[in-house]
TrEMBL record:
Cofactor: Mg(2+)
Class of the enzyme per the UniProt entry, highest EC level: hydrolase
Similarity field: Belongs to the inositol monophosphatase superfamily.
Keyword Cytoplasm applies: no
Alphabetical list of SUPFAM superfamilies matching this protein: Carbohydrate phosphatase (SSF56655)
Pfam families: Inositol_P
UniProt name for this protein: Inositol-1-monophosphatase
Catalytic activity, EC: 3.1.3.25
CDD domains reported for this sequence: IMPase (cd01639)
GO biological process: inositol metabolic process; phosphatidylinositol phosphate biosynthetic process; signal transduction
Organism whose genome encodes this protein: Pseudooceanicola albus
Binding site for Mg(2+): 69, 86, 88-89, 214
Amino acid sequence: MSFSANLNIMMKAARKAGRSLVKDFREVENLQVSMKGAGDFVSRADIAAEAILKEELRGARPTYGWIAEEGGAEGGEDPTRRWIVDPLDGTTNFLHGLPHWAISIALEHKGQIVAGVIYDAAKDEMFMAEKGAGAWMNDQRIRVSGRIRMIESIYATGLPFGGRSDLPETLKDLARLMPACAGVRRWGAASLDLAYVAAGRYDGFWERRLKPWDIAAGIVLVREAGGMIEPINPEGNILADGEVVCANEPLFEKFSKIIRDV
């Protein structure tokens, strides 16, 4: 099993940032008396992880562009390539001491995601994929699930909190989907939801109003694992619109019709 130089750079960066986050995660429980104190601590942990990733990725590939959750976008001498980075997806889980969060790194080339790494540092599970080279979790090849019946399948999504205006739409999605499937999960980290679809743990995933760094790495993971992934609006663009629906091939048509309400 050999990977490209770029994918090795991505994995090395994810592991280094992951060590920093795991160390900080162990401290979070001591700060739960004050949510503001814990929140400030997690913000610092997030920023520190992004600094590590930026140092590793831009240090190795200084001509590539950069876009990340905390630091925003920066151009590069090579306008065709950029890193798309989320240093801590699942911040609320991290803040509450729940070990379900991840580092997400994608490489975009000419508008296409060509490589992705999603690292669950708390469980030491490294999901990675490269266009044309398959999808992997640590040293194991991964594939989407083989289920073919909706009623036996489980799906993941995110639920809008904090008064977001898209809550009614999500509740309508759930009302259509729940009678047709075996379960819906909401674990609070979109990148890991996509990684779990690629690994066959979930049969599908959908969500709206995501950011590019939430979903970029997952796009290539799901595709290289044999899954189908599209924008909810078939005429749209996943990264630009921030919405996605994905599943294995046998389930995709039925599942996507339910989500699209067609």
